[in-house]
Design brief:
This protein has four helices and two strands, in the order H-H-H-E-E-H. With 187 residues, it is mainly alpha-helical. A two-stranded antiparallel ribbon has the order 1-2. The termini are far apart.
Length: 187
């Protein structure tokens, strides 16, 4: 199955999910979902997540629902096409349909994780910069000593040299004293 056909089958899965949402809305409100105003929802009680005046918003209309449906089809088709092009031998029509069904939920879940991934990637990149700066600081100190001699533990606070290899190693007790937020160590 090529990626374009898989994307079409995935879009059919997205259309199936959209149809299920419309059916549930019609059964719940007894009218088309684009005709439901926020003040007609039973029971009309004040919720903490509503701002003043939001309970009297007009119905979104059929154009908004058409845009939302088209966007769901695009997300479902795009994600299914990407999966099919990444794993062409493993993609069959059932897999493509199931990926299309869950595409919107998967994208929503991944988008909530993006800030966490960016934050941890930034910390990792910053850690690499700090390691490079420490190595550049230690290089002139090591260059002045003989090739067989190790670096003394006094050159870097909280570091010791391994007797067998002469390699600088961090003191394990130092990591326990450091603040996890990176604000410095204990006094």
């Amino acid at each position: 199955m090529d990626w374009f056909m898989a994307a079409m089958v995935g879009a059919a899965g997205g259309a199936s999910m959209e149809a299920v949402d419309v059916i549930k809305s019609i059964r719940w409100h007894r009218q088309m979902p684009w005709d439901v105003r926020s003040d007609t929802i039973d029971p009309p009680q004040r919720r903490a997540d509503l701002r003043p005046g939001e309970e009297r918003l007009p119905a979104p209309g059929w154009k908004a629902y058409c845009v939302a449906g088209v966007l769901r089809l695009l997300v479902s088709g795009a994600l299914t096409g990407v999966v099919a092009s990444s794993f062409p031998q493993r993609t069959n029509p059932l897999v493509a349909f199931l990926v299309g069904l869950g595409a919107l939920s998967a994208v929503q879940q991944v988008s909530t994780l993006v800030p966490l991934m960016v934050k941890s990637t930034g910390r990792a990149a910053l850690g690499g910069v700090v390691d490079q700066a420490q190595q550049q600081t230690l290089a002139p100190q090591q260059g002045g000593q003989q090739s067989g001699a190790g670096v003394s533990g006094d050159a870097v606070p909280g570091a010791e040299t391994s007797p067998s290899t002469g390699v600088l190693q961090a003191d394990p007790g130092l990591a326990a004293q450091q603040d996890p937020a990176g604000g410095g160590g204990a006094p």
